[in-house]
Every structure is written in C-alpha cells, then in structure tokens.
Write a structure and sequence with these properties.
alpha+beta; Immunoglobulin-like; 8-stranded mixed sheet; globular
Length: 900
Amino acid sequence: MSYCFLFFLLTWQQHVSYKITANLNIHEHFLETTEYLTYYNNSPYLLETLYIHLYANAYRDNNTIFAKETKEMGDYRFLRAKKSSRGYIDILDVTSNGDSLKFIINETVMAVLLNSPVKPSDSVTLTIVFFLKIPKIFSRLGYQGNHYEIVQWYPKPCVFDELGWHKDPYHAIGEFYGEFGNFDVTITLPGNYIMAATGERVEAKDIEFMDSLIISNKKIDMGERRTVRFVAENIHDFAWVCNPDFFVSRTNIDNLNIYTFYTKKDAKKWKKAGEYSVDAVKRYNKWCGTYPYKSLSIVDGYFRGGMEYPNLVIIGNDEDFLTRSFEAVIIHEIGHQWFYGILGSNEIDEAWLDEGFTTYTEIRYFEDKYGRENSLFKSLFIPPLTRRYYHRLIYYLTWTNQIEKAILTPSYEFIDAPVSYLNAAYSKPGLILCYLDGLLGREVFDRILKEYFGRYQFQHPKTDDFINVCEEISGKYLKPFFDNLLKTTGYSDWRIKGCERNIVQLENIGNILLPVDVCIETDNGGQVFRVDGKEPLVTFNLPEAKKIKKVIIDPYGYSLEANYWNNYYPRRIDIKPILSWPSFDAYQIFYAPYLWYSSEDGITPGFFIIGGEFVDFDFVRGRHQWLTGYNYGLKSKMHCYNFSYQTPVIFKRGWRTRLNFKGSNANHEDIFCFGYITNFGIPFTPKPHIGIKNMFSYYKLNSYQSVDSIDWSIGRDVVLENFLNFNYLNWRIGLKFSVAHSIVGSDWDYIKINFEIKKKIGILIPINARIFGGRIIGTAPRQDQIFLSGALRINLLADLFFSQKGNFSPQEHIHISGDGNMLGYQTTHIMTNEIYCINLELPARFPIRIFGDFSYYVDAGDWKPAFDIGAKLVLGPLSFNAPIYTKIENPWKIRWSIGL
C-alpha cells in the first residue's frame, strides 16, 4: 500500500474543465465573457489559493513586463501605439457556489483566495465574469481590420506541479505552460464571420454552414448574429480565429480532417497548404505516434511566421516562387501539435522540449521528402541551402561570438540576445537530436520517439523523462551526454593530431568529450571506428597498413562539432564556381570568369579567384580570406590586377579585430592599403555597435588615361585614414579623420575631417535624414576634395562594371553615396574644401521617393548656398535619380543618375 501511495505522490497531475460563453463586438473590439472553471486537485496538497494567468494584461500599458522587454529588444511598435490600440482583461466578478471571492491581480497573474481550501482529490468551480479589450496585433492576441486572432484570451490556471505554482508572466520571448483539461466554448459573433478554433463543432447549423462553404464556396445566411460551439478534450489551451473573408478547404489523412482557412487574395499562394499539411501529418504519425484528435486547422494569419495552438496553427507566410519557407513554417507549426500540443512541456523553462523536437522533425521532413541535399530554395540555379545547414549556421554564429547560453536557460533570460534563444531553443537542440539519431541509429531513435510520445501524451514531460526513455531504450548511460549539452555551453572539437605511417592520432581540443565516428582509409581499404568520447586523446594503430590515405572525422555528418575544418586528412579543399554557400568543413576556392565592355577599355576579359575558410566579415568568423583578380582591356591595352587579404587576430564576445590589406592598379592608379578593422558590439542586438578602421594607404595616380582629369590630380598621396562608425537603433554616426604629409612620401600635406549623421524619422511620414559636414585643412589632391554630388571612388564590385571616366563616371551619371550627396549636382563636378549639408528622403522604405538637399559650401573663399529637389525610384541596391530643380545655372535641367 505504501508503494501505491508513493507512486501517487510522484505521478499526480492537475486537471481543469472550462465552460465559456463569449460575445464578440467587432465595432469596439471587445469580448464580454463568462467562464465556468472547474479545478481538480489531484495533488497531495491542500490548496487555499488558485493562481490564474491573465495574459491579455500584457498589452495594457508601457509598464508591463512585455512592454519593457520589447523595448530592451529594440521593438518599439507597442510602445508607440495609441491607447485605443492597447488591450487588457478586466475581471468583473469571481464567485464559487454563489459566494464572491477575493482576488488580487498582479499584472498577468491573478490570485483567487478561496473561501474554503480544495482538498486532495476534490475540486472547486469558479464563475469568472470578465471583459476583454482586444488589442491590435502586437504579439499574438489581437485584431487587424476585420481579422481576429483570439489567443491566450481567457483566465487560465497556472500549472501546479511538484515544483509548485508556475506563475510566469507574459514575456516577449517564450511561450506557455498549461494544465490539460476539457473545453466547452460557445461564441456569439457576426453572422457572416467564418471561424476556426480548437476542438470540434457541435452545432448542426454551424456544421451545415461550414460544409456549404467547403463544397460550394457559398455562405448560408445565418442572420445578423450567430452562435458557434466547440468542444475539446485532453487539451491545455483554446484558441480561435475569425474573418468574414475566409475560404475553407478540407482534406483527410489517417482519419484526421485538415481544414485550411485562407483569404481570397491569398488563394493562389495557399493552394498547396493542404498538401504540405498532409505530408507533415503522415510523417509525424509514423515517426512519433498517431495524432489523437479528429481535426486540425491551418489558418491564414496576420504576422509573418507562425504560432501553434491545439488543433490550430496560424501561419503568416505565403507561398513564393523562390523559397520553401511557406512549407517550412507549416510543417514546423504542425510539428508542435505533437511537441507542445500533446506533450505539454514547460515552454518557459524547457523550451527545447517543444522547439528543439519540432526543429528535428522539420530537418528530417525536408531530408525525407527532398533528399539529404534538400534546399530552402526551389530554383536549381541557387545552390542548395539545407535546413541542417541553416541550423548549423545559427549554432556557429552564437558559438564563435560567445553569446551562447545553456539550453536549459529560462526563455525570458534571452532578452539581451534573442538570437541566443533561437540557438538554444531551436537550432542546437535540433542538431543534438540529429546527433542522437546518428549515434544510436535510426531504428533505436524512432523507438525512443514513439515510447516518449506514447508514455507521456497529455502530460507534462520534463528533460529527465526524455533522458530516462533514451537510456531505457538504448541501454546506454546518457546522462553525462545530456548534462554537457543541455546545462553548459561547452563544445566538442575533435581534430586529427597526426598521421604517420600506420598510426592516426585524434585529439579533442574542446571542453567536453562526445562520441564520434572516424573513417580511416589506408592502402588496405577503409574502415569506420567509433570513438567513445571517454578520453581526449585516441590513437589508432593499423599494423597491416603501410600508408594512411585519408582520415575523416564524422563521415556521416551527424556530430555536433564547433569546428569541422580540422576533421580531414589531407585537408579538404573545395574548388568550384563562385555560386556556393560557405562550407563548414572545406577550405573553399571560388573562381569566376569576367567579361565586360567599356568605351575606355573596350572588351575586357578577366578572371577572379577567391579563397578562404568560411566567410569573414564583422560578426561572421572566417579565416585567411583572400581575393585576386586580373583583367585586360583590349582597347586600352591595360593590365589591371587587384588583391586583398583579411583574417581575424581577435574574435571574442563583443570585440572583433581583423588584419586587412589590399591593392590594385585600376584606372592607372597604384593602390596599397594596410591596417586593422575593429568591430565592437554584440551581434543581433539593439545595443550600440561601433566600427573602427585604421589604414595606412598609398595612392599614386600615374595617368589621366582612365579618369576625368577635372576630378583627379596626378601624383602620390600617402595617408593615414581613420574611420569611426557608431550604430544604435535608428542612429548612424560616422567620423573620418585623414592625415597626409610629405614626411611619409606624400606629394600633399593636409588634414581631412568628415562627419555624417543618419537618422530614420517616423513621426507622420517615414523620413531618411542625413547631416554631413567636412573640412580640409591644407592642400589635398582633387580626388580627396569634398564633392557636392556624391563620393568619387567606386568600390571594388562597382569598379568591375563602371570606370572613372566618361558618361558613366561617378561625377557624371553614376551616383556613389557620400560627401554632399546632392543628387541635383550630378554632372557639375563641383568640389570644395568645406561643406555642411542636410539630405532628406521620403517616404523612406517606399520604392518611389522625394528627395531634397540643402547645403553651404566654400567656393574660392566665399560661402555659397546649394539646393535641389527631385524624385528617385529605389529597387534594392540600385536607384534611378531624377532631380527636378537645382539651384544653379539652368536649374530645371534633369541631371539624371543611376545610384549605387
């Protein structure tokens, strides 16, 4: 008997039952609702207080935890919203057996003080009358136009388990934790509204209405108002979406009805939603266990991305011609029906148990359907980008930037670096499960998934529960494996230490040891060995072999390594055309032929070679990245070369410094620059980012053959150039300080100072504003003067296609952003040694924009005003600029330009 009582103490789980009636007002955007909540105390404890979530209060004002956390993340949409767009939940009355109960509300959690305690194995029923003001959609709950997404909307008991009450507030990062129970929900709404919800419809008239809509796309007249009712059993949340413009389709798989709700404007883009849903359910049923409910709704939502609820997922994406992102979001959110919906883990404290498992099934889905080399892109002309590669990239970026946090970190602790949450909840756990799949074998791992699902469905499994199932099914002791990967940010890095005759040595230079396979190929053939991960140094002695031909650590590609480049002997070198994604394990060399024509050089063939370990810029760490190129002008007889090299010398959390040098002889100008580029700041956060570049540069123009002589001076310019860039929220501040002097061989002595401030302003109309000032003290060459219309020097990429001379030079009809940036002064070649100006562009982010510029500049010792106004068409990195008026001779002449 004592053993039975002990089992009860260890395995109890609370249960709830809801009966809810709600009335939707679409004119003032609110719900009037009564909820009958029955709480069953299956615990061995006496409960005097019930704690209940009121999630909608997160949208009440700027003082909520949600508001403060969105601000810390750099998202100001909610903070700047009108009061009328906010939302909240007002509790009007709480009673039990006709007696009023006292309640205390602390933002999104309400404590209900019971008149008499709820004993073990007893229950209590509360009647809660509440008013819900529906906000505009800022996060999940809300409306947009006539579209309503009613989620996390009703008073919902906090989970009470062996750890106590989980009174988590509504956070900007992280999801939810709820008790399983039964729902009976009745909602009154406008008669023409079409509704998708958790559970099953029970009203005959409503079922007839839906059947007519599905079969013939016709609505039965339901009058001005109608009532719908849904019931559901063994679920832990209830959500619904309604819209008068929904169309509905239905398909079936394994006795499950899948309903797709979409609007007319999205009909073509949602054509395959049902097909993707069937493909997902079919696979997840096979891999994890059969979906236990009767229906599943896939709903066209407002926000980009997706969100899961029991029997219902909301998808904000649409099908596009280029990517499979629509399919990816659908199958990911459907995966949550298993890992969140049926296995109701704590999404705040152990988010990996839902997001990580869903990421694993998403990776597996794409590999099963499209092959190991599956791609997020549909086009055969774009190199395959696999889901596994994408999640490896997230892990690599967080690991190299040292912004990783342990997987078992509560979700709200990722506010300072949300990409770390993406890694800890999604990417790294998904890769760990892929690793476990490869380590234990697919057959064993599938048995683990099915046992885990079958044993814990409709419960709240924890990390230890999954570990226990893994150990039980595999027969292996895996707790140290999981402790290292889930509770620390340690990493494993096996490398080939040495290969000599018939001996191979492997060494783990990481701070945790993980098992891995290694393939060793000798003159006698190849063999795969398992390294058990118990010792950091492993030696393989192959006495029958005379020569080691090849060694590959992790030949099957399932391990979780921080660094794959040391996994090959001899080192893997990959030579291919320039269209390819950076490799995690090969030193890549890209080649690209070049052919162009210009009036100065004529037909210009050439060739470029780029090499490096991964790719190296700012927060992306590569190594030894170099470029070399050559082209020859058949008309000009000019040989042109260029080269560059860059590699990190410091790369740690918040600080990245790189050695950089480059050179070329383009346009008859010899250039060589050497120095350091430094970046400060945590990537993917709204915190300040600072860039510093210090370069010692040598420029020598030898001829006017390839440049406009009016803009350039022949001679040698040796200059120390210093750049400072500061980025914070919508502010961009830049400062350039340059010094040239004859003491280092320069033909000119001068000091040049430029500053630039850019700000996006969004009060009424979104505006790009820029303030620029520059001054030169001393005598500088013409090419280092400050030009009214824009910068003079073309960067490397543009230099391949445009010259510094003729009709398509920077001061003629090619505009390079910089200096005065006054588009109306294109073709005027006006330069100065001092200028102060303001540039405005509106509406920002729109393809067609109006620009206006005003400045004062020095001309022959006198200050002169300059002004222009015009329009531009912006298409990605290119723009077509058409000034209308310029304060100059012939002011209405259109001095058009193409902007780069």
